[in-house]
């Protein structure tokens, strides 16, 4: 199947061709026709499968075929600044040959540039809830002309923390509109809540809502006191490309990044206390290769589109299985392979069980060769976790960094990503502050070579 079969506007097809993409992904094949028909839609697909273009392309087609308006006509609401900027850049790239304008609205930066951009009357707005409601309250944004509403990362947007803001935004929108919800995960209670704002909708689900099959998983049992030393030893022994390390708190993110920098790793951090400019510097430096490691809180799980991430390391176990899926979705993107390592302490046992339920497989436990565990014996941790039967294809989640125990001898490991290199300190010497890069390449289709950006 090709993008031409969607009968998209020629100006949009030329934008797709300009970036070298020819084959739509499964979520695009199912969602784009329904969206172009004007249907409300709940789109469920794994992270990195091209959900962004599944709504951006039909929105561009719709707006480019109609007369220009002086109002915002399509509103895309997202949970983080990084995701807002990513989708905004996707609309620019895909709509480069159209007259449809786009704007990104989020906090952490001055309102003045946003007010200036609003004077150009963009028809597509990608926004975070807080700053959007600020503008609505100030009377600088009018949502009465919205024809299409998109809630991206809908499980997060409809979570209890965002629900009041989502309801306030809905109260400013016209009742007659098209509503689209896209998400990598959708727990049943959140699904019921989301469906309440859809009318006669169609549900598109490409694969079971779980981490991509191109990612292998491994668990490194450890104690809190040994965590940092184990991470350093793991990075030193493991050939990696770009590596994303997740921590639980902003303070731990900052502290761990400083510790890694002191060990001569090229590292930056991303967490909510940073200004937007510093967050953008961290993202650009990681994307451009100035930094090999990015230490981040879960804010980075939404909106990072860096296809060269070969490894995701959970320095801290996430709070939910859905959060695990979002984190791991940063690697193994676009049909590439990746590895996910989790440093797990005894108190993480309940969450280990929850994640294994989602994976439908027992995560391989590993001991790192040569590492001094002292009196701690990793083989004795999580023994009571009931093994889960592997998937039908016989795959056991796991790779080869470290000796394993309790794994399937006939297991298969997808791999450690393309273009990997040894991640020792010598290969990651500090290189100073990164330059500011341009927009990201959106993940929306397959290149002719078989890889997607």
What features would you describe in this structure?
- This protein folds into two domains: 3-209, P-loop containing nucleotide triphosphate hydrolases (Rossmann fold, 3-Layer(aba) Sandwich); 215-428, Rossmann fold (3-Layer(aba) Sandwich), CATH 3.40.50.300.
- Helix 13 (321-328) links the parallel strand 14 (309-314) and strand 15.
- Helix 2 packs parallel to helix 3 (51-64), helix 3 (51-64) packs across helix 4 (81-94) and helix 6 runs parallel beside helix 8.
- Mean pLDDT is 82; it is low at 384-399, 406-423 and 426-453.
- The strands form four sheets. The protein has an eight-stranded mixed β-sheet with strand order 12-13-11-14-15-9-16-17, with helices on both faces. The chain has a seven-stranded parallel β-sheet with strand order 4-5-3-6-7-2-8, with helices on both faces.
- The chain contains 14 helices and 19 strands.
- With 453 residues, it is α/β, with parallel strands linked by helices.
- The longest helix is centred in the N-terminal third of the chain and has 14 residues, at 51-64.
Topology at a glance:
Layout: H1 10-18, E1 21-23, H2 26-36, E2 41-44, H3 51-64, E3 74-77, H4 81-94, E4 102-105, H5 111-118, E5 124-127, H6 129-138, E6 148-152, H7 154-157, H8 163-171, E7 178-183, H9 188-195, E8 202-205, E9 215-221, H10 227-237, E10 239-240, E11 242-246, H11 250-262, E12 267-270, H12 276-288, E13 293-296, E14 309-314, H13 321-328, E15 338-344, H14 349-359, E16 364-367, E17 403-405, E18 421-422, E19 446-447
Features of the shown structure:
single chain; alpha/beta; Rossmann fold; 19 strands; globular
